[in-house]
Amino acid sequence: MRFFRKGPLLASFALAVVLSACSSGGSAPPAENGKSNLPASEDATLKPVTLKIMFPGDPPANWDEVKTEMQNRMADSLNVTLNVVFIPWADVLQKRQVALSSAEDYDLIWDNNPVQNIAAGLYEPLDDLIDQYGPDIKAVRSTELMEANKVNGKQYAVPLEVNFIRPWTFVIRKDIREKLGVKPIASYDELIDFMYAVKQKEPGLTPFIPNGAEHIGLKLAGMLDPAANLATVLNYPGLYTKGNDGKVYNIFDDMDPLIMKTFEQNRKLYKDGILAKDALTLRNSEFTKGKAAVSTFNDFGVNLSTRTSLEKSVPGAAAEAFTLYSPDMKLNSTYKAGNFIAVPVVSKNKARAVQFLNWLNQRDNYDLLAYGIKGKNWEEAGEGLYKPVQANPYAGIPFAWGWNPKLDRIDASLSEDVVALNKWERDPSYFTPDALAGFTFDPSPVANEVAQLSNAGKEFYDPIVMGVTEPSEGIAMFKKAAYDNVKKVQAAFQKQLDAYLASKK
After folding, report:
1. pLDDT band at residue 157, thresholds of 50, 70 and 90?
2. N or C: which end of the chain has fewer CB within 10 A?
3. Among 9, 15, 4, 5, CA closest to 334
């Protein structure tokens, strides 16, 4: 799975707060021949260390074999054993906060949005540790990526990203499309026509189960007219930016026609039985179970995990992708990452944890992490490409602890147009810096309003986006419940943004 989470095109920002630097500590680095660099007054040998790592989701098939190979490679150098704790996606956010607040002994933690934990002083600033022990961490990431993901000028977490926009794809049951005699999808209108054909001729299959409100809200509205540059403001429902003008808008006072058109279209899809009745709770995992004809994913093309899961659930099934993106688009990017790996301040192995991340950001080790054992799980397929071994594929999980655009390979079994899209999105030179690039928002002055807005968004905004409520009625209810909070968050955001933009002049 790709988290995904939130992304450069949809303006995801880090929190800017003045934080006191926490002291670096932990195990000293190993020297050549496995000897320690500890001072002579301390233990002269490098002691074994077990790194406890929190990871989202479930372990992939063959994980134990790959983990064993990783540890074998480190036995004569880092002397590291891995204790990777996989937390189901439904529980990972809550359990991460419990672990951090209770000072549980994790050494590395995946975080999709680390701003609150940075503000709380729960993550170690890594600049000095990366300078000393992480040259490869920096070597495989562009300056844009590293700098855009600092907080108050400091690197509190390693950004994990391969893209400078957030890829987003409709994934379609190819076998169903061909069965119904529908030509390959080439436009959003044709996609909708296909969904209606499924509704009419395949009654046992739900036509459309998108992966949540994010994918068919402002993201869809913005892609129907990329020049509009519509983007959500963080996870604050009702707030958005447009036109790259450095202004923040709300849907109550400044409803963009593209946004309203999208809401109305989603409402029609829901009423017509195209969108699942349980659309608020269902996600794209339903597609891989064979229960939907169309879903949405944060990838270009159909990733290996989706393909293999669908084929296992429905023998003979096949998937294909349709995207609204094109390499000739002129898009802006904030260069923000969607995933991060952080070292908790309570870790007793900070230096070794950074050394391990550096190890992961070396070619052969990254290949192992991402694609499994060479010759068994994957094969070389050209510069920057790999080919999964179909009989024994390994759906790697690099997004949560190693992802970077220089080492990450593209699946050569994807079509040429999808490979081209993947290469395009990984090159920062194709994108224009967004006006908000580098801006960080401190929500602490409106923390209560942010919390209340989040709750109101789940109750009122998400049903609007997913078509469950009639748009004008839903917006009226949402406004009654959240207008004051929206306005206060908007004002605080705009004030800080204005100050940031003024400082750049």
Report:
1. very high
2. C
3. 9
